[in-house]
Amino acid sequence: MKITFDTLTFRYGTHTLLKDISMEVPQGALTALTGPSGEGKSSLLSVINHLWQPEDGVRITGSAVAQFKGGAVDLLSPHLNLPLLRQKVAMVFQNPTPLPFSIFKNVSLPLTFAGIRDQKKIHQRVERALTRAGLWDEVNHRLKHPAATLSGGQQQRLAMARALVTNPEILLLDEPTSSLDAESRNGIEAQLLELKKSCTLLLVSHSEDQVDRLADRIYRLDQGHLERQG
């Protein structure tokens, strides 16, 4: 399994969001997480990418382990190498947030943070990421244009390209198509089906139809409890 949770409990202040969660996310597949709003699905994703700190009032017990190419990693360890973790675990949010830069720089920025300086390598990685996100053919002639000039669907695929440019092993997707029109949604869904061949995907979605179309495994989170549905 790529990710394994065992009796994980997530508390924020006096409120318990997740209660004794046990879950297995298989490698090279798309696992969907469904359930009512406000039940902790995004919090569960935040555990995988370690987007929390104990000083924020968060307390987590139980076990959360990811199997990377270099070996198993305890996602709850206080000694995690966070920059390295976030190269291996990338995330795409519900609303795309293009930075006030060019299309090219929006995608290449994570490589700069990763310490990559070779311009040839950067250009190759950007092209590959845009291709994997299904955007290269639409933007390759205007990479220096502001990212804000892209349509909503294109901006979401740009966000996917930015997430993919570090070649992550895990891609977390938090309602990535909920604000898009049907054509843009269909385009991104097609890319997700391709991406799961080379990357483990964990998708949060409220759309039962979308989950039925895409998911290899389905979990439902309701009132803090998790249940496998398919």
> What form results from the Cα inertia axes?
globular
Instruction: Please tell me the total number of domains.
Output: 1
The CATH class designation is Alpha Beta
Number of strands: 10
Please trace the helix and strand order, writing H or E for each element.
EEEHEEHEHHHHEHEHEE
Describe the main β-sheet briefly: 6 strands, mixed
Estimated share of beta-strand residues: 25-35%
Q: Strands of the largest sheet, in order across it?
A: 6-7-8-3-9-10
CATH topology: Rossmann fold
Radius of gyration: 17 Å
CATH superfamily name? Answer: P-loop containing nucleotide triphosphate hydrolases
Low-confidence segments, given as residue ranges, are none
> How confident is the prediction overall: mean pLDDT?
92
Structural class: alpha/beta
Please report the distance between the alpha carbons of the first and last residues: 16 Å
| Number of helical elements | 8
- Overall CATH architecture: 3-Layer(aba) Sandwich
Range of helix content: 25-40%
At a glance:
With 230 residues, the protein is an alpha/beta fold.
Structure notes:
With 230 residues, the protein is of the alpha/beta class. The chain has a single domain (3-228), classed as P-loop containing nucleotide triphosphate hydrolases (Rossmann fold), CATH 3.40.50. Helix content is 34%, strand content 28%. It is built from 8 helices and 10 strands. The strands form 2 sheets. The chain has a 6-stranded mixed sheet with strand order 6-7-8-3-9-10, with helices on both faces. Strands 2-1-4-5 form a 4-stranded antiparallel sheet, covered by helices on one side. Helix 3 (103-113) packs across helix 4 (119-132), helix 4 (119-132) packs across helix 6 and helix 6 (152-164) packs parallel to helix 7 (182-195). It is globular and about 50 Å long. The two termini are 16 Å apart. The model has no long low-confidence stretch (mean pLDDT 92).
